[in-house]
Amino acid sequence: MTPTVSNALPGDLLAAMNPKAASGSAATAADAQNRFMTLLVTQMKNQDPLNPLDNAQVTSQLAQLSTVSGIDKLNETMKSMMESASNAQALQAANMIGHAVLVPGSALALSSGKSVYGVELSGPADDVQVTLNDGAGNPVRTLSLGAQQPGTLALAWDGSLAGGGIAPDGQYQVTVNAVRGGESVSARALSFGEVLSVSTGSGGAKLNLSGSKLPATLADIRQIL
Prior knowledge:
Helix content is about 30%, strand content about 35%. The chain is an alpha+beta fold. Helix 1 runs antiparallel to helix 2 and helix 2 packs antiparallel against helix 3.
């Protein structure tokens, strides 16, 4: 007797390929595995006896399912690790509240004849020159630091001017120039600020500093004073 092959798809196969999503819940890896296995079993039950499923094809499908499941588990693990790292970072940042730090920036605030700033050098320098400029960009004082090793230098300015007298309180800008053997050395100014509070979000912990409109990150801190 010749087997009869129907062109109509069985109802259970259609149901397996078009499951109704549970309202208000997202599909999970387990749901995907269950649907796949249901579909595979249904395919095997309704396969054409004259053209059965190929073993290699079934193995390939199972391997794909295993890969998808593994990626989903990896994503969940990475998400958990990122959340743990974010929480640890927030706790570490909270410990910084009340501490003074140096972070990249050229702003310098002079108050009552006192100010603190810093310089960061990427390599050794034969000579380091620091220029302090007023709000209009005019230099009011140039300081020679001489030869310096790479790293961070914490510095102070009492407001004294090159021609004598004391600069008025206010905001100033710091520029740094460093050379070694006639070649320029990468150098940048560091701003002083006190950590007032910590903000958390998708970008990680942010430190809100006194005298700064922009928050800093833990990675921005060059020195704790």
